[in-house]
Each structure stands twice: as structure tokens, then as C-alpha cells.
Design a protein that fits this description.
Rossmann fold, globular, about 250 residues, about 35% helix, alpha/beta, single chain, four-stranded antiparallel sheet
Length: about 250
Amino acid sequence: MNELDIMDLHVEVEGKEILHGLNLVVKQGEVAALMGPNGSGKSTLAYTLMGHPKYKITKGRIKYKGIDITEMPVDQRAKLGIFLSFQYPQEIAGVSLSNFLRTAYMSLKGQKISVIDFMKLLKEKMKHLRVEDTFASRYLNEGFSGGEKKKAEILQLAVLQPEMAILDETDSGLDIDALRIVAEGVNSLRGPQLGVLIITHYQRILNYIKPDKVHILMKGKLVKSGGPELAEHLEQMGYDWLHEEEDKV
């Protein structure tokens, strides 16, 4: 089984260490949630897993499909099957969503696809995710609402068909209706061929996307793991009880 294996990971940004020896395994076909308060290192982990050069690994390894990807560039990680959904997707004026996705698709698959064939594929995915037809012709994220940007990210996930998806605070800035639509999109793509790491601050998205495992990150360290009930406990108690447990250690 393919899995993302993070071993004793230490990461620093601009000379400051953010992650302090993190160990985590996410298996293909599994939905894992990584929760933690602001500043705990969640987004640092997401960008590090995707290979952002700003995030320097000082110790530890990252393996995917048994391959050491610790020093692998971003494009090779993507071709290997890793996908990152951004917390704050960037706007790209002048580039339509359909053209962007077709270019990304050909780059990842290493093969050409005609505009007609790609539009057929794209419309199938848009229908499946209940995305409006006009979405495809709009410039990437330009003038998009927060919910539309996140829907575009899930559409990218559906079209590119990665095997490991990292969703960095996909619920950030969404109202209840947009959150439900995005969650339904993720659930519709869920299956044995896709591993998902949902990174979130709040439990609310987990009301719609039921995780198999929940992990809690605090101050750059993984402090607790469990099942879906752990997220529910966090919703009731907050993170204070974990601070108290940490102080006792």
C-alpha cells in the first residue's frame, strides 16, 4: 500500500525551527485530519511536504511510495501523485481555469490531450462536483469568492487525480453552504486510491468529512492521535486540556 511516511521531521523557516521531530504516516485510502491551534506548524508541514524551498528540512526524512522525497523538487512530487490545496489560492489574471487545468494535466500525465477531449473530461468532473459550466472560462481565481476558490481547488483535485491530497485549511473563510459543497466534493472523490490529509484549525469540516484518524499538532510536535472522537472532544474542550497535559510531562 502506498503511504506518506514522515520521520523525525525538523523544519526551519528563516532560521527559526517550526517543526521539532514530527512523525506521521498517512496511508492511501485513508482520510487523516491534522488539527492544532494557530501557529502550531500545520501549514509549515503542508508546504514542506510539497517541497516549498522556503521551508528547510534540517533533520528527518519524508518518504512516499517507499521513495525518499526529502530533497525532491515540487514538480517531481506532483508527478509522483502528491497534491496540495492551498489555504489562500492565488489569482492568475488572463489564464482561464480550463487552460490552467489542461496544462497541469498534460504536465503531470506526460501526454498531450486535445482541447475537445479535455473539455469532455472537465465537464464530467464539473457535473460530478456540481460546478457551474461558466467556471471553466473564468480566469483562475480572479474575482472568485472564498467558496468559489475552494471549489476550484477541489475541481483541480478531481481532474488531476492525485493519490495523496493535502488540504491546507480548505474550510478557511467558508460559510456553511460553501463548506458543505466543498466537503461533498471531497467525499465524492474519497476511495481506496486516494489518501487525504486534512489540515484544519476547527472541527466543523470534520462534521462533513469523517476522518479515519485525527492527529493533534502543538508547538511543532505531534502530541496526540486518535479516532474521530478526538476531534469531537476538541470541539467541546478546546486545546487547553492538551496544554495542561503537556505541562505535566
